[in-house]
Amino acid sequence: MLMADPAVLRNLIEQYDALRSLHAENGGAQARRRMDDIVYTLCVSTGTRDIDAALIAARQQLTGARTLDDSLLAT
After folding, report:
1. DSSP per-residue string spanning 6-75
2. How far apart, in whole angstroms, are the C-alpha atoms of residue 44 and residue 28?
3. Residue 55 burial by CB count (10 A; 0-12/13-18/19+): exposed, middle or buried?
4. Cβ-count burial of 1 within 10 angstroms (0-12 exposed, 13-18 middle, 19+ buried)?
5. Which of 18, 38, 58, 67 is the most exposed place for a label (fewest CB within 10 A)?
């Protein structure tokens, strides 16, 4: 299975949390559309079908993510 870039996942989670704290799901059309886009992208990126599962999967992937890719340094 392909894994999303940790920076992308982190950014999506941050955007989701920010919009959720602003209650974007109850806001204007543009805010709802942005929230829907982030939810969709998180679900696709984690191979899940709902936001709760997507957030759990993304956070699990982030805890296992390496902070430095040293694959090019190996000899």
Report:
1. HHHHHHHHHHHHHHHHTTGGGS-HHHHHHHHHHHHHHHHHHT-SSHHHHHHHHHHHHHT--SS--TTT--
2. 24
3. buried
4. exposed
5. 67
Write down the pLDDT at residue 73.
Answer: 47
pLDDT digits (tens, 9 = 90+) for 24-68: 767 788 888 999 999 999 999 999 999 999 999 999 999 986 555
Task: Give the amino acid at 14.
Answer: E
| pLDDT at 72 > cutoff 90 | no
CB 54 within 8 A of CB 46: yes
CA distances from 58 to 22, 30, 40 (A): 21, 25, 13
Q: Report the distance separating Cα 18 and Cα 15, nearest Å.
A: 5
In degrees and rounded to multiples of 5, residue 57 shows phi and psi of: -65, -45
